[in-house]
Write a structure and sequence with these properties.
It is built from 4 helices and 4 strands; from the N terminus they run E-E-E-H-H-H-E-H. A 4-stranded mixed sheet has the order 1-4-3-2. The longest helix has 54 residues, at 152-205. It has 2 domains: 17-47 and 119-189, no CATH class; 53-108 and 190-253, no CATH class. 48% of the residues lie in helices and 6% in strands.
Length: 254
């Protein structure tokens, strides 16, 4: 189990609906704890909300990129269609900006990663639900007559086993939550670094802007930007081309 710190808003898992219908246990058997969360409609359970990794608008490019002293090699550009810097006044900073909402919506890597993390979360959730459902079936089988043909020693052993399994399931919820959180953080940071590095190299090979800012509808400090400073489209195209080539190479290596 990974040991990264959990976010304050740690997700919780959905306990199987059958837990709420448990038969009253015998005096010796501890009653199963209340469901970790209640879901009135199985298909619309909100106990484990879908992780929206497109939250990178709050992680990725909300900082200022400051590139100085890096010029295009031999005065040539890798992308001949790259925009020329817009300078507010002679001798001033050369500034551009990237719309991070658009970048995250059109970057194929971000979309693939969102699906990957959602599938990972769903697999963990289903695993937990299946184990809880099996425990519930075993518990009800015992309390509804399973102990009739057992000796006292066998009954006590069975009760101890059921109690131990329930305690393990309760701790498993936290373990799965941590695994999901840690994987989400690690993969988001990986994509953040990829975007940073791509923009740094792209800037050096094409324009040499002094500042590349992030513009976002929800959290950007930029209220207005000259459209001539918007390089979102070429950055997205470059990122997608790089990702497509990487996928092709990985496929050929297999």
């Amino acid at each position: 189990m990974e040991e990264d710190k959990l976010d304050e808003n740690a997700v919780t898992f959905e306990a199987n609906d059958t837990a709420s219908n448990a038969v009253e246990p015998k005096d010796i058997i501890p009653e199963p704890t209340a469901p970790i969360c209640e879901c009135k409609e199985e298909k619309k359970c909100k106990c484990l909300p879908v992780i929206n990794i497109i939250l990178l608008a709050g992680l990725v490019l909300l900082y200022i990129f400051h590139f100085t002293g890096i010029g295009a090699k031999n005065g040539s550009k890798v992308n001949p269609n790259a925009k020329e810097p817009v300078v507010a006044n002679e001798g001033g900073l050369k500034i551009a900006y990237v719309n991070t909402d658009t970048l995250m919506a059109k970057y194929q890597y971000a979309k693939d990663l969102e699906k990957q993390l959602t599938d990972f979360k769903t697999a963990k959730e289903n695993s937990y639900k299946a184990q809880m459902a099996q425990w519930q079936r075993d518990y009800e089988a015992y309390t509804k007559g399973g102990a009739d043909n057992m000796t006292l020693a066998q009954q006590q052993a069975k009760e101890k086993e059921l109690q131990a399994r329930l305690q393990k399931l309760q701790s498993l919820e936290g373990e799965y939550t941590m695994q999901i959180q840690n994987k989400t953080i690690a993969e988001s940071e990986k994509m953040t670094r990829a975007v940073y590095n791509f923009i740094r190299e792209y800037n050096a090979q094409n324009q040499q802007f002094d500042l590349i800012l992030a513009r976002s509808f929800s959290s950007s400090p930029i209220l207005y930007g000259n459209e001539g400073m918007d390089i979102t489209e070429e950055i997205v195209n470059g990122l997608n081309a790089e990702y497509a080539n990487l996928k092709k190479e990985n496929k050929e290596d297999k």
